[in-house]
Amino acid sequence: MDACGGPLGNLTAHVWLSLQNSMILSAAIFITLLGLLGYLHFVKIDQETLLIIDSLGIQMTSSYASGKESTTFIEMGKVKDVVINEAIYMQKVIYYLCILLKDPVEPPGISEVVPVFQVERSACTCSE
Fold first, then answer.
1. Where is the Phosphatidylinositol N-acetylglucosaminyltransferase subunit H conserved domain (predicted)?
2. Torsion sign across C-alpha atoms 122, 124, 125, 128
């Protein structure tokens, strides 16, 4: 008789290893699904809208692939200017629309630069 208790011990060890492997695989699938759901809920933007009402302000709405919506409102009194900004990403220049907010302490200054739309690198690249 061997250390595992004969044929029954070998069978039990084999079943136990198979069960451990399937539990590891199930955990990996579960974690992957959680990551995908998190990506769809928090990252993947399906549609973005911009509503500008001159006397009130600017409303930016992002609709995610999961159906979640996120809305940001900026009062017109806080807006200094709306500009098209440029940035260098990797070896390309990308352009994006952004809002410059007034600095409440120093009115001629800028307190924050708010990008209006999420920059999709493949759609906004400038090719030469």
1. 49-118
2. positive
